[in-house]
Design a protein that fits this description.
The chain is α/β, with parallel strands linked by helices and 515 residues long. It folds into two domains: 43-86 and 266-513, 3-Layer(aba) Sandwich (Aminopeptidase); 99-253, Glucose Oxidase, domain 1. The protein has helices at residues 7-18, 36-39, 42-57, 68-83, 182-191, 229-239, 294-309, 331-338, 342-346, 382-395, 411-416, 434-440, 464-481, and strands spanning 29-30, 33-34, 88-110, 114-115, 124-126, 133-141, 172-176, 196-200, 224-227, 245-265, 270-280, 316-323, 348-354, 365-367, 401-403, 421-425, 508-509, 512-513. Strands 3, 4, 5, 6, 7, 8, 9, 10, 11, 12, 13, 14, 15 and 16 form a 14-stranded mixed β-sheet that branches. Helix 3 runs antiparallel to helix 4 (68-83), helix 3 (42-57) packs across helix 7 (294-309) and helix 7 (294-309) packs across helix 13 (464-481). It is elongated and about 75 Å long.
Amino acid sequence: MKKILSVTTIGLLMSLFIGLPVNAETNIFTPDGLKIEHAVNLYGVKLHQQALMEISKNNDNNRSAGTQGYESSSDYVAYWLKSAGYEVEKQEFEFPYFQELSDPVFQTTNPANEPYEPNTQDSYYTMTYSGSGDAEAQLVPVDVVMPPASEPNTSNSGCEAQDFTDFPQGAIALIQRGSCSFYDKAINAQNAGASAAIIYNEGQTNRTNAIRGTLGGPEITIPVVFSTHEIGADLYELSQTQQVRAQISTDTEFEMRNSHNILASTQAGDPNNTVVIGAHLDSVLAGPGINDNGSGSAAVLEVATKIGWLKIQPENQITFAFWGAEELGLIGSEYYVGQLSKEQLATIELYLNFDMIASPNYVRFVYDGDGSDTDIAGPYGSKYIESFFVNHFAEKDLATDPSVMGGNSDYAPFMLADIPVGGLFTGAGGIKTEEQALVYGGTAGEPYDANYHTLEDNLDNLNYEVEEQMIKAMGSALDHFAYTLIPEPETAPLVRAAKSAATAQLDYQGPFAVR
């Protein structure tokens, strides 16, 4: 007579091979079958993060798109997906690779020589896709609003070609952040004959520091830097009484390179109701990116492999996406969405995004799908995703905060394509408030992740406790959305919330502000 193995014994054997929890109190099986939430665990995620760290060490301490570090990272992900039974697609695309070869120079040369410290939020940054060159010339303000208006995005400085009427050829343009994109400001300055441009922050609350902005692509040939409001305001005031001259020097390069997304889908499930779950796989050039975004990509890989190995049969097809070139502006996810037909887009039920889920000074952020706490709502259906995550954590007596969907991660292309979006985030370079420190612990007045976009974004600086909470929430979300459709709207099928992406210009493209 054959002996039937007990559920506990099966679970123990699985734990030896694929890292399932051994705790006898955790039963991964329920009357409805296997729960993804119980199958996924921190062990598997840490294994993948350790591998990504080793890949980074062997490749100049980064895994940036267009480099061997990214190639090895995607090979690693593809290997594990294939081991779990998936057919893996390597979706290739071309993108403008940008890097700064040396520190920039920004200083006044008249009436006094005053150099500014490069690439710091208290001074200035070279803008992404800035041209390369050296300019020393008169500084000329362009239609700035000083003192700044009380509301952000008020100044139209440099937004129109006529702002540069009578602009001296070869001068350096001093432009204020405001209502239009940085690209518009820079291209107008370039077309007017400026030798360089300084864009300075507008001046309202939370709009005073220097930020890493992007010009969107390699069309700007002049040097462009972004400074604090204080620097810009001081230069403007000085220019009202005397001629100010400045030097700006940047050393940058860009070239077209190839990168790719890694995609895999479950064989089971209705392909007309697909749940896409994704995370970007690339890091910045400055570091290994083990929180940003080794945490999200390792977690998605853990979920995918467990579903594959355990042969879980979802009713809605699940597509797992590992995006390339997010750090240069959501390029991989934009390519994926952009090459889909209207009919193919209609088969996507929702998109779940996981970007930085192990921040050391964390807050449990949930994307604000209905826009009730922030300025922008997602497409119809996003509120159901937000509600699910908020309720999931509430049932475990874990607090959450809303996170604005301003376009700073890979949900943005799906959002703009009218697909419901949601996801989790534990914070990047933003500053933790006193109120958040009271709720979550940690240190008020410090960044959520002080190692964001640095060499120190490594295995030593992760919060594994919150990462495990995020992993379980991911699994729970798939337990729900892989078997349940978002309710149809009561009116037309393409109804959006009032404050939606259809009317909002998103402020970010990946980690970079665009206006």
